[in-house]
Amino acid sequence: MEITIHRPGELTSALRGAWHRAMDESPEYANPFLAPEFAIGVGRHRGGVRIAVLREGGEPVGFLPYERGPLGTGRAIGLGLSDCQALVHRPGVTWDPAELLRACGLSIFEFDHLVQEQRPFAPHLTGTFASPVIDVKPGDGTYAQWLRATYPGLAKTTLKKERRLGRDVGEVRFVFDERDPKALRTLMRWKSAQYRRTGRMDRFSRPWIVDLVNHLFHVREEHFTGVLSVLYAGDRPVAAHFGPRSSTVLAAWFTAYDPELHYYSPGLMMHLRTAEGAARSGVTLVDLGRGDKEYKDWLKTRELRVGEGFASRPHPVSVAQRVWRRPVRGLRNTVLAHPQLLAPADRLLKTVGQLRTQGRPGS
């Protein structure tokens, strides 16, 4: 196995084509977060992005995008943002993790959404978690007919609220692939306020994430397209979602709504409309991402498994990194796994978020 290391800008059209073929040959790798376009996008805004290319007989057969940090610490590309991580490879290809890390100049490689199929990394897992998905197919007729056939338990209440929203605010309409950048800015503003209101880290307070989302919004390729979907009442945006899609998979990434209209359950409306619109556009799977949320339990058709852990080779830096990072992840996972701990923690975060919001000038 020959392994070479490349910067994102060094990926030739031939390498990108080989990467795309590897995605096409294995359904596990059809997720847009595994596409070279995502790695290239992150590489525009993160200086440590590298791609390991695995070759057999001179032919590229595997691709691992990663971010290299100080002292040889490594992490999956977009860790904390990406909902799917893997060494994308052609069927039958295997590798030695220690050899891979040595070629990458890494002492440790951290991941938190690793595709279950990655068997060489299996000994390095510290846990596996459910990642809900929706298997979708186009419905016959209208959105309402699709909703009644696919989610009969949600259809009556959701359609009733949509009709009420139409009477109170304006005619409800949905645009699956909205190209107006103003709508994207509205979504980021809503999401930023939601993060602060609930005490979460505001991702959109980080300029590089804003720049990345703006960049991906303009990418329109066969294996990767940034899709902005917007639900309107009249001319007023009510809810929006932005996420990448491949030819067959849409990743649910950033969803937010106008908090003034929360009574109508616009977030749930957005997820349902997006699933139906995705099916009509040729998507067969909507990946909701790892995490326990009530709406995911309502919408999912099944669950994938993703792994969390640290692949490492003997090195003082890898030992120190595991000692520092593993307890933090363990504490978080313990809280998430126990409702009796999660509810108080969530209330605390919301209280902190409200206090921060009240303390902001002009709030």
TrEMBL record:
Domain of life: Bacteria
Keyword Ribonucleoprotein assigned: no
A GO term for molecular function: transferase activity
Family annotation (SUPFAM superfamilies): Acyl-CoA N-acyltransferases (Nat)
Keywords from the named record: Transferase
Domain BioF2-like acetyltransferase: 156-296
UniProt name for this protein: GNAT family N-acetyltransferase
